[in-house]
TrEMBL record, chain A:
Full protein name: Outer membrane lipoprotein carrier protein LolA
SUPFAM superfamilies, A to Z: Prokaryotic lipoproteins and lipoprotein localization factors
Family annotation (InterPro entries): LolA/LolB/LppX (IPR029046), OM_lipoprot_carrier_LolA-like (IPR004564)
Keyword Signal: yes
Listed CDD domains: LolA
Pfam assignment, any one: LolA
From TrEMBL, chain B:
Keywords: Signal
Organism from which the protein derives: Euzebyella saccharophila
Residues annotated as signal peptide: 1-17
Keyword Signal: yes
Name listed for the protein in its UniProt record: DUF4292 domain-containing protein
Length: 185, 202
């Protein structure tokens, strides 16, 4: 991808992210571990609302939800509820911002990531490589696929070992009104 | 006085009794045999469990994944539901290798516990020289990482593994909801620590 094309993509994604107040989407997650015969597949629903409220709700093959809201993580593990106050935890704060950013694809921060831009069939693909060693202990790279409109189609989080988690979004709706109940535990 | 002395002797006797004796098992003629734990024995199978760990008042979940990768070799990974790897170990012929563990969990005491528990969980073939019987129930005694373990079979199905010290059970691995060679439910309970691991097959 040329520099101009990369800049166009950045502007398109940033502009779309700025206009996106809420997202609802289904997702399919593939956990790839090199020594396994098959990826571990799970499915669920993602709900996002500005500023930075995120709910990942897994419905298959297990029931589990994790909500990032008001500097607290709310977990519901098949009926067992727990909270984790992470106020003041800088790493968590960054991780939460990162999750919220990656859903919209708006991660074009040259201070935080080295970036590489590619064309991949009908989509645009960007590799984000964290510069911070604290983050790169967990994640070697984020690969994000964008639609022509600038929506995130797919996120792949690659661990230093090469194993990865791939999340493919479908049935995405944006800017539909969401209530507090959508982020209840 | 005689009754008191007898009582003390009885208490001492039962307190010092072996684990099988306390469980009312009788020793059968000793001969060297092999015990088979079949629950992680298929190299073609990915063993994937939803896991819960209750440790020292904290509870957290994730996925526990085991793969038999060689004759006496297993790889096992614990990840969060969202896919982040918490630990990645291999056990080959009872030798334990840490490929990855989160920095916050990289403590020798924790690694020793996980090494003991997971080695007992996946070791497939063990030699035993002591066998105890109670009806259709059998206890086989064996050494794993220099600690005494009892493998409890009922009607030829492995039901539990108990690590003992001085005749007392310290750690129990309990297998239930067994289908063929798959234990769909596994619980590892520590009797001397507030630590319990629960695995449910996905």
């Amino acid at each position: 991808m040329s520099v101009t094309e990369a800049n166009n993509l950045k502007n398109k994604v940033k502009s779309l992210a700025g206009k996106t107040q809420t997202i609802k989407s289904d997702f399919t997650q593939y956990k790839h571990i090199d020594f396994l015969a098959n990826d571990i597949e799970s499915k669920g629903k993602l709900t996002f609302k500005e500023p930075g409220q995120v709910k990942w709700e897994y419905t298959q093959p297990y029931t589990y939800s994790i909500i990032f809201k008001n500097q607290t993580v709310y977990i519901n593990d098949d009926g067992n509820k727990s909270n984790l106050d992470v106020g003041g935890n800088k790493l968590f704060e960054r991780l939460n911002n990162l999750i919220a950013s990656s859903i919209r694809g708006d991660m074009f921060n040259a201070n935080e990531f080295d970036m590489k831009f590619f064309k991949d069939d009908d989509n645009d693909l960007v590799h984000f490589l964290p510069k911070d060693p604290q983050l790169s202990e967990f994640i070697h790279a984020f690969h994000i696929w964008f639609s022509k409109k600038g929506n995130v189609q797919e996120v792949k989080m690659i661990e230093p070992s090469g194993d990865y988690t791939q999340i493919v979004f479908s049935n995405r709706t944006t800017n539909q009104p969401l209530s507090d109940a959508d982020f209840s535990q | 006085m005689r009754i008191l002395a007898s009582s003390i002797l009885f208490i001492l006797f039962t307190a010092c009794a072996s684990y099988p004796k306390k469980q009312q098992f009788t020793q059968v003629t000793a001969s060297t045999q092999n015990i088979i734990n079949p629950y992680f024995s298929d190299t073609s199978k990915d063993y994937v469990y939803k896991a819960n760990i209750d440790a020292f008042g904290n509870s957290f979940g994730g996925l526990f994944i085991v793969k038999k990768i060689g004759e006496k070799s297993h790889r096992m990974v614990f990840t969060t539901e969202m896919g982040t790897t918490i630990f990645d170990f291999s056990i080959k012929d009872q030798r334990f290798t840490v490929h990855k563990i989160l920095k916050d969990m990289d403590r020798k005491i924790l690694l020793n516990i996980l090494q003991q528990d997971l080695t007992a969980l996946v070791t497939e073939k063990l030699e035993t020289s002591q066998r105890y019987q109670k009806g259709h129930q059998t206890l086989y005694e064996s050494q794993l990482l220099n600690k005494k373990h009892y493998f409890y079979f009922r009607q030829n199905q492995l039901k539990s593994i108990s690590r003992t010290k001085n005749g007392k059970e310290k750690v129990a691995h309990i297998f239930s909801d067994v289908e063929g060679n798959l234990a769909k439910s596994i619980r590892i309970t520590h009797n001397n620590l507030p630590l319990q691991l629960t695995f449910k097959a996905l």
